[in-house]
Specification:
Length: 104
């Protein structure tokens, strides 16, 4: 879906989570090489994973709150992610914060 929506190549930063590196996923990825570039991270390197920086901001926005329902929690999480989604400087910062070079 992402490839179809973007209409171009996709670079996947692979964090070595066990379900991401399963035989089934690796086999699927082999057939996608035309448009999918996989960049594997070392086995344990959260400081190199831009998603860790995203989760930190989301957790900060949700921390120390008591939610009355799962619906209220879902709304708060959606609002936090929406705030990030509409802040290109944050999205760019997640990558630059890792110290890795961005490919254009």
């Amino acid at each position: 879906m992402l490839h179809a929506r973007l209409g171009g190549p996709v670079t996947l930063i692979w964090d070595n989570y066990s379900s991401h590196t399963s035989a089934q996923v690796r086999e699927w990825a082999k057939g996608q090489e035309r448009w999918l570039r996989i960049v594997p991270l070392p086995a344990y390197a959260p400081e190199l994973n831009p998603v860790e920086l995203l989760w930190k901001i989301v957790k900060d926005l949700l921390a120390n709150r008591a939610f009355r329902s799962i619906h209220e929690l879902a709304e708060a999480a959606d609002a936090a992610l929406s705030k990030i989604k509409h802040s290109p400087h944050l999205l760019h910062g997640f990558f630059t914060g890792t110290g890795l070079a961005l490919l254009e």
